[in-house]
Amino acid sequence: MAKYIIGTKIGMTQMFKEDGSVVPVTVVKIEPNIVVQVKTKEKDGYEAVQIGTGKKKKLTKPEKGHNKELGSFAILKEFRTVNSKLETVNFQVGDTIDISTFTEGETVKVSGISKGKGFQGVVKRHGFHGMPASHGAHSVLRHAGSIGQRFPQHTLKGMRMAGRMGGVSKSIRGLKIIKIDAENQLLVITGSVPGNNGGIVEIKST
Q: SUPFAM superfamilies recorded for this chain (predicted)?
C-alpha cells in the first residue's frame, strides 16, 4: 500500500554517517493528518484519498460543509491511489495518518512549491550560455538571440524567453528517510526538498 503524508519544511542541516561522511538533510515537521474524504471510481470517477492537516480559523461556507464532521483544516491535499481495489479499502474517513506510517531507510518522493525567483532572464531561467564576450558584442552578453524566423512571422509557442521563475510545483524522487524522531514528530530526509522554510510538502512512498 502506498503511504502519503503532508508536512512542513523546517530547514536543512547535516548529519554524520557511521563511516564519518557528511550527509546534507532536510527536516520536515509532521502534524497529524486526517483522512477527510475517500473517493471511489463508482461515485467520483477516480480513486483518491483526501487528507487534511493544520487548523484554520475562518472558513468559507463550502469548506464548512465539506469538513463539518471533522472540523477545519488549513491544508487539504488529494493523493491518487494507484491500485484502488487494494488501497482505498485501507482508508476510512476520520483515520489519522502519523509519522509511524514510514520507516527509516524508506525511499520517498517529495513535492512542494519551488522558491519564487521573480522575473529572470534566459541565462538564469533556462541556462543559456549568452553571447560571445568579445568582438564588439558588449550590449548583448545575456540576450537570448533569435526568437524566430521570417516565416511564420510570429514567435512560436514554447519559445524559451525571460519571465517569472519559480513558484511552481516540483517533485524530487529517490530521497531517503534516514531518521524518524517520533517524540518531536520530525522526518529527516536526505538532500533538499522544494520550497521555502515553512512551506508545505507532500511526502509519498515510492
A: Translation proteins (SSF50447)
